[in-house]
Design goal:
The termini are far apart. The protein has one domain: 2,3-Dihydroxybiphenyl 1,2-Dioxygenase, domain 1, CATH 3.10.180.10. It has helices at 22-31, 70-73, 87-96; strands spanning 16-19, 36-41, 47-52, 55-61, 80-83, 100-107, 112-118, 124-130. 18% of the residues lie in helices and 37% in strands. It is of the alpha/beta class.
């Protein structure tokens, strides 16, 4: 079989955030953002996976001795972008759970309605729905 003629197909992508407490962060994603904790590694966990629909976020434990995390490497911008349907319901759900909505929902010039949320570690998550 000629691999040059095979078509590449992408599946989902899962961002990995480096955090000081993966379990506490996973619980935030569960309790505030409606994700499910689907995996935990070691006890206490050094890595957790949260899942909602086809989206996953990997949460790894920061090596505190290095004094480096995603936040110190990248202090601004978007950390993860999620394509969703039912954005208004998601915004209501997050607000009811006490989540920090930074902006939105707002319709952008590029015909996408977006909700910008900050998680418990300062990561900026954007949820976008085509108009």
């Amino acid at each position: 079989m000629n691999t040059a003629t095979q078509k590449t197909v992408f599946g989902t992508v899962a961002p990995q955030f480096i955090v000081s407490d993966p379990l506490a962060t996973a619980e935030f994603y569960r309790d505030v953002l409606g994700f499910e904790i689907t995996d935990k590694f070691l006890d206490p966990p050094v890595h957790c996976i949260v899942t909602r629909g086809h989206s996953q976020v990997f949460l790894g434990k920061a090596d505190e001795s290095l004094g480096v995390s995603n936040r110190t490497l990248k202090p601004e911008g978007i950390d993860a972008y999620f394509r969703v349907r039912g954005l208004a319901a998601l915004a209501e759900e997050i607000a009811e759970q006490g989540g920090e909505i930074v902006e939105g929902p707002v319709t952008r010039d590029y015909d996408v309605r977006e909700l910008v949320v900050q998680d418990c570690n300062g990561f900026v998550l954007v949820f976008g729905e085509d108009v």
